[in-house]
Amino acid sequence: MxxxxxxxxxxxxxxxxxxxxxxxxxxVPADKESAKRLDDLEGVGGIYPLDQKLGIDKAPFKAxxxxxxxxxxxxxxxxxxxxxxxxxxxxNRFDICHTQVxxxxxxxxxxxxxDDCRQAEEAKNVDTSKIDKRKARKDTxxxxxxxxxxxxxxxxxxxxxxxxxxxxxxxxxSDLYHWANGTEVKHKDIVGYIGKxxxxxxxxxxxxxxxGFYQCRTRIFITDGARWxxxxxxxNFPDCQYILDKYHAKENAGEFASAIKRSPKQRKxxxxxxxxxxxxxxxxxxxxxLEPYKDFKRQGVVNFYEYVSRLGSCMHYDxxxxxxxxxxxxxxxxxHRYTMQDRMxxxxxxxxxxNGQGILSLKCRKESNHWDEVVELIRQDYIRRxxxxxxxxx
Length: 394
Hints:
This protein folds into 2 domains: about 5-100 and about 370-394, no CATH class; about 135-360, no CATH class. It has 15 helices and 9 strands. The chain has helices spanning about 30-40, 50-55, 65-75, 80-90, 100-125, 195-210, 230-235, 245-260, 265-280, 285-290, 305-310, 315-320, 330-345, 355-365, 370-394; strands at about 5-15, 20-30, 135-155, 160-170, 175-180, 180-185, 190-195, 215-225, 240-245. The strands form 3 sheets. The chain has a 5-stranded mixed beta sheet, with helices on both faces. Strand 8, helix 7 and strand 9 (about 240-245) form a beta-alpha-beta unit.
């Protein structure tokens, strides 16, 4: 195979803090036989020897892995790719277009979601009944999860439609910081998945395993009253304590009282009575009080009698509070806002399944303070690309 010099071209390599210009010689095949040979060996039409020497010939986007991580960080932290490109240009003193920011973010998101799927597949084969629990920790571990909707492009068609993504947050009582105005979670692990609950459970299970869920003595799920959640938990995560978010319960109780009573005084009296029974965990009292209205139906109003009949086993709030357990799911509500909604639910935004999942996976790592794992995944991918290049030559 014979190669010849074609040109010396300038190329900017993106590194953290600035753009580094280099001059590279391009070698191209001297004849058709050489061109075929080069294509068979490398799958390219020309070679830059300096790129190979620097180890960037297989690097995506001609940027260092740390720079790629920084671009992805801005891609998910800003409200749009254009805003991210502007911030990167100002911070690093080089020009980058918003389409390049999107490409880089999609690449890193795909890497991270691939790692999520690997962990989920491993968790799928773990028999949790065989996990050693003889030295069970005294920690109380909490799991909260819920669904939220975003706009996804219709596959093979115009327009978009609403799709649900599921997000879970895991933390221990030792991760809680109590202060005068409330409670803050200092350390947490967030998992997000776009798709069916049957697949989400393995992503959640992987997160539970890495957080020592099965070694904790007290395992608590706190959720809202969505119909699918309690059966899902009882089937897939038995032998746990399930708690219905107390504030969801009170919200539904107040709306139901307003719907069945006409006068303001009757509404207030019934609401106050229901709230007191909720606080006391008096499930039987609620059912007795609302039995005359068990068949009441109105669009947009949850029948609180049916609601309590279905979820009463998760509403013993007097016992939960005696044990000093949390009874609200405010953490997952706020988690939805800063993990998904701030980036994926802005006016005019819509996504396809792959890049939407990539953004969600990256946001989960970032908000869990696991960005170092993202950087390491990029670094390992760079190593694999370089190794595949070397092996192909051999």
